[in-house]
Specification:
It contains 17 helices and 13 strands. The chain is of the alpha/beta class. The protein has two domains: 127 residues, 3-Layer(aba) Sandwich (Rossmann fold); 261 residues, 3-Layer(aba) Sandwich (Rossmann fold).
Length: 395
C-alpha cells in the first residue's frame, strides 16, 4: 500500500491524482505512523510540500531503523542544498519539487524498487543496475579551439529534441564558458555538492541540475574560481558516476589543460573529442595530448579528432597539419561567423541553424557516438527546436 500525507486539502487531492492507483491518505502524522505500523507490507510514504520539514525529518528518522524497507519521498516547493542535506541524513530517499508530476512518479517508482530489493534481502545499490549512459569528454590542450561550442552543440544534438536524456557538465572550474554561452545564471553548481561529498545520490545530484531544453540538462561550473578550487577529483568522479546512471549521454566540457578533475572525467569516458585549430601551438598541444592518451591507454578507437576553423588561411597545408598531428583527423570544421553570433545570442547553433555546416558536422559526431548513420531528416526543423529551447530557458 502507498501512503501519503498532505495537510492542505486541495494539494492532497492533487497529489492523489498524480500518484494514481489507490493511495491511502492520512489526516495527520500520527495516523500515518499508525497506518505504517498496521501494515508491514507498506513500502512507500509520500510527505507533501505543506508538511513541516522538521516533522518530515523526524518521521523518516523514526522509521529508518525500525522499517529500513520503508521509502519516504518528500515534496518541497523549493529544493535547495540545505533541505537535501537534512533530508538525506534522516533517511528520506528522494526530495522532489511538488510541481514536477513526472518527477514525483519517477521518485516513487525508484523508491519502490529499492524497497523491493531490501525486502528480498538485497542492498539498495542493486537498483542502480540500470544501463549506464555514455560519457563524452570534449578536450583541447589549448584555449580558444571551440571546446565549449562543440560540447554545447553536441549535447543539443544528442538530446535530439527530447528523444534522449543528456546532461552537459561544465568542468572548466576556473574560467568556464558554458553558463555564459547559454546565458544561464549558475544559482546552483558543482561547488554546492561539496557539503554532500561521499554521501551523494541521484536525489542530491538532481537538485544541482538545471533543465535547459527537452531532454537536455546542465550541471554548471561554480561562478568564481575560488569556489572551483573546492571541487576535487574524488567529488567529480562521484558526481559523474551518478550522472551516468541518470542520463543516456553525459557531455563534459573541460579546461584546456590536464588536471585531476579532467583525468577523473577521462577515466570514466567512452568517447574523447579532441580539438585543435590550424596553428602550430594548438597542433603541438594536440600531439602532446595524444601522447598522453597513449600513456594512459585510452582507446584510439574512441578518440574523435576535430580540426576546427580548418579553412583558415594561415599558411599551413593539410600535409603540414597531418605531419604534426600524426593521427587521423575525423573532421575538418569550417569557419563561420554564425558561431560567434549564436554564442552572443545564447542559443546553440544546433538549435538556431541545424543545417549550418558546423551543425551538420556535429550531427556526424552524434551519429558516430550513437552508433547509427545520420539521416537527412534527423534534426527537427529550426523553429521547433528554437521554440522548445527558449521556453525552458525562460522558465
Amino acid at each position: 500500500m502507498t501512503l501519503y500525507y498532505e495537510p492542505e486539502a486541495d494539494r492532497a487531492r492533487a497529489l492523489a491524482s498524480v500518484l494514481g492507483g489507490q493511495p491511502h491518505g492520512a489526516q495527520d502524522l500520527a495516523e500515518l505512523a499508525a497506518l505504517v505500523r498496521a501494515d508491514p507490507d507498506t513500502q512507500l510514504v509520500i510527505l507533501g510540500a505543506s508538511v513541516e520539514l522538521a516533522e518530515a525529518v523526524a518521521f523518516a528518522a523514526q522509521h529508518r531503523l525500525a522499517r529500513p524497507s520503508l521509502g519516504v519521498v518528500l515534496l518541497r516547493d523549493h529544493v535547495d542544498v540545505a533541505v537535501l542535506a537534512e533530508a538525506l541524513r534522516s533517511g528520506i530517499r528522494e526530495v522532489i519539487n511538488a510541481t514536477d508530476a513526472d518527477g514525483i512518479r519517477g521518485a516513487c517508482a525508484r523508491s519502490l524498487q529499492v524497497s523491493h530489493q531490501l525486502a528480498l534481502g538485497g542492498s539498495a545499490p542493486a537498483v542502480a543496475g540500470v544501463k549506464e549512459g555514455h560519457l563524452v569528454t570534449v578536450f583541447a590542450g589549448k584555449g580558444g579551439c571551440g571546446k565549449s561550442t562543440v560540447a554545447t552543440n553536441l549535447a543539443v544534438a544528442l538530446a535530439d529534441g527530447g528523444k534522449s536524456r543528456v546532461c552537459l557538465v561544465a568542468l572548466d572550474l576556473t574560467f568556464g564558458d558554458v553558463a555564459n554561452m547559454l546565458q544561464l545564471v549558475p544559482n546552483l553548481s558543482l561547488a554546492d555538492a561539496v557539503p554532500m561529498a561521499r554521501r551523494l545520490d541521484e536525489t542530491a545530484v538532481r537538485s544541482l541540475v538545471s533543465p535547459l531544453a527537452p531532454g537536455l540538462y546542465t550541471l554548471l561550473a561554480p561562478p568564481t574560481p575560488t569556489d572551483g578550487e573546492r571541487v576535487g577529483r574524488e567529488l567529480v568522479s562521484e558526481i559523474l558516476k551518478i550522472v551516468k546512471r541518470m542520463y543516456d549521454y553525459v557531455v563534459v566540457d573541460t579546461p584546456p589543460f590536464f588536471s585531476d578533475q579532467v583525468l577523473a572525467a577521462l577515466d570514466l569516458s567512452q568517447w574523447y573529442i579532441l580539438l585543435a585549430t590550424p596553428d602550430i601551438p594548438a597542433l603541438k598541444n594536440l600531439r602532446l595530448t595524444l601522447d598522453m592518451f597513449d600513456l594512459l591507454e585510452y582507446p584510439t578507437s574512441q578518440r574523435i579528432i576535430v580540426l576546427n576553423r580548418s579553412d583558415a588561411q594561415v599558411g599551413l597545408t593539410h600535409a603540414d597539419i597531418d605531419r604534426v598531428v600524426r593521427a587521423p583527423i575525423a573532421g575538418r570544421v569550417p569557419s563561420t561567423r554564425d558561431v560567434p553570433v549564436s554564442i552572443n545570442r545564447g542559443v546553440p547553433l544546433m538549435v538556431d541553424s541545424p543545417n549550418n555546416p558546423v551543425s551538420r558536422y556535429i550531427q556526424e559526431v552524434r551519429s558516430r557516438i550513437v552508433g547509427q548513420p545520420a539521416q537527412a531528416g534527423d534534426a527537427p526543423g529550426p523553429a521547433h527546436r528554437r521554440r522548445a529551447f527558449t521556453l525552458r530557458r525562460g522558465r
